[in-house]
Specification:
Structural class: alpha/beta
Distance between the termini: 15 Å
Largest sheet: 5 strands, parallel
CATH class of one domain: Alpha Beta
Shape: elongated
Helix content: 40-55%
Order of helices and strands: EHEHHEHHEHEHH
Length: 263
């Protein structure tokens, strides 16, 4: 007989439950999760009822979110009424209802504390740490440098000499009578020298400012990326441990059913 496992959880915990379900599917014949097991156009409530009816084991991820979810309550009560084997999985210290308390549970409260903090231990908003204030100061200094460079450019452009296009009033001068025997020289036209760009002297200052901003931001970006990578690695390890623990319990329970210890 194909072993079928139904997973009941709150969608608020999908980011924690889904990776564990993926790992379980690598070794189990069928693990039902509503997010990808219900086909498009299928009536989801009927699909849930059929999946519970066909399941050998119903795994209930229990926490504050599932306690507040009417759908989770409907699912585990349907499983109990259908006399299914139920496996509660504790994610925080939310009191478990008496109906679920009759079944032996798995305690993942310590393992998933960082990803799923206990309700009474949720950290309150705190002021920025001194380290964070230092980074804010560095960013503010970089912004001040940029503003100073911009102000210098604006002042340099404003102090550049202005060339007047006004011409003196014309004076009437009687031109001399040209002598036909003397050749008239052709006047040469000289181009005016190119005006100096007011931006050119500030290019080194712009480059220096850019380097200062990069130097200030590089450690901050590096620490953020490193912290994110460490969190991902820790989350992957937690998912692996949870999946292995669940897999061991599923084999124990489903194996005992296969040996004749059914409902």
């Amino acid at each position: 007989m194909t072993d079928r496992v139904f997973v009941s959880y709150s969608h608020h915990d999908a980011s924690l439950v889904t990776p564990v379900v993926r790992l379980l599917r690598s070794t189990n014949d069928f693990v039902f999760q509503d997010s990808d097991s219900i086909k498009p156009g299928q009536k989801w409530r009927e699909a849930l009822g059929e999946a519970i009816e066909q399941a050998n084991l119903v795994v209930v991820f229990w926490c504050l979110h599932s306690n507040e979810s009417p759908e989770v309550e409907r699912e585990y009560r349907s499983a109990i009424e259908a006399k299914k084997d139920v496996l509660p999985v504790l994610l925080d210290s939310t009191p478990i209802p008496s109906a679920l308390g009759e079944f032996q549970w798995i305690d993942f409260r310590e393992l998933g504390r960082e990803r799923h903090p206990r309700p009474e231990a949720r950290p309150a908003p705190q002021a920025a740490s001194p380290t964070r204030w230092r980074w804010y100061g560095a960013l503010a200094s970089a912004a001040v440098l940029v503003l100073l460079v911009g102000a210098s450019l604006w002042m340099l452009q404003g102090s550049a000499p202005q060339v007047s296009n006004a011409l003196p009033p014309p004076t009437t001068v009687e031109p001399p009578v040209p002598d036909p025997a003397v050749p008239v020289p052709t006047p040469s036209v000289q181009e005016p020298p190119p005006a100096a760009s007011p931006v050119a002297p500030l290019v080194p200052l712009w480059v220096l400012t850019l380097l200062v901003v990069v130097v200030l931001l590089a450690p901050f970006v590096f620490r953020k990326s490193k912290s994110a990578a460490q969190k991902r690695q820790a989350a992957n390890r937690q998912d692996q441990v949870m999946a292995e623990t669940l897999e061991e319990e599923l084999r124990r329970r489903l194996g005992s059913r296969g040996g004749g210890a059914g409902d």
